[in-house]
Amino acid sequence: xxxxxxxxxxxxxxxxxxxxxxxxxxxxxxxxxxxxxxxxxxxxxxxxxxxxxxxxxxxxxxxxxxxxxxxxxxxxxxxxxxxxxxxxxxxxxxxxxxxxxxxxxxxxxxxxxxxxxxxxxxxxxxxxxxxxxxxxxxxxxxxxxxxxxxxxxxxxxxxxxxxxxxxxxxxxxxxxxxxxxxxxxxxxxxxxxxxxxxxxxxxxxxxxxxxxxxxxxxxxxxxxxxxxxxxxxxxxxxxxxxxxxxxxxxxxxxxxxxxxxxxxxxxxxxxxxxxxxxxxxxxxxxxxxxxxxxxxxxxxxxxxxxxxxxxxxxxxxxxxxxxxxxxxxxxxxxxxxxxxxxxxxxxxxxxxxxxxxxxxxxxxxxxxxxxxxxxxxxxxxxxxxxxxx
Length: 389
Prior knowledge:
Structural class: alpha+beta
């Protein structure tokens, strides 16, 4: 079993050795790539400094901070409420009216996904259609116009290829892609914006938390709520995220990794962490709070549920009382940015509860399978991976 304390790079190298010598191993349970490489359209002529295979980056020191890349994708909706043909342009500032809907009424959505570099140099996207579908659902909730699923996925491909030299070498991270949908048209009274802009920018990243791959220590927040019933907690709107900063910063100043929120009605049930979903494991049973309107339906969350089921675990989406933390064997978080992150402890009402981490854990098993599929080391029989040249 691979040790959880290994770095992402050493894990990748270990998994590469496993996949080349142990074809019958459990981590090779997924077979057959379903997608084909795609070509980039409307690609600008590269400048002289773009000819190198890799950008001048210290890949070994990569964290999760913004590192502007060469290009971004941008398009606007036309008068007939359809997005026009987008284009790749140089990364830079965008111009907005002071009365833009996104600035005045927070009419904005964002997504997050990653591109991984294979040993052969090709790039892999992971379930990009799911991000597109979630953006469309969010746009409907926020009275916005969204690109089609095909437009969304094609835009991701173009952005990834345009910034290919910023995609880390295999095992050293990924190219994070951030699609944004904003109300860019001017509006004074409270109403939907008359124009929308869809754009994607990119940044190379590695570990999200400063702990790297070390176990997280979470703090259960009881003063502030992340979301309320019949609100926008299940939507990836920009207005969901600034409200968590106060509680998050307070927890981090006290030495915690992040905040775990409870439901706003009873304050008895787990919901999610500031930027990721939560799972608990007891024996062969893996449970996660059901998406009842206040919890974001994470794509990594959905994937881990499927992988865990395929590995023979009993999977439950249900109300998870905070009191069940006392009896849990393991706790872990999932998300595009965090991947599958083990939780070493949770502090609730001044009581610290510790959980199993490291080797021979469910978290490690699921993490290994997920990363293997995402990076092309484990074959994918589910059609999750999209390979582009």
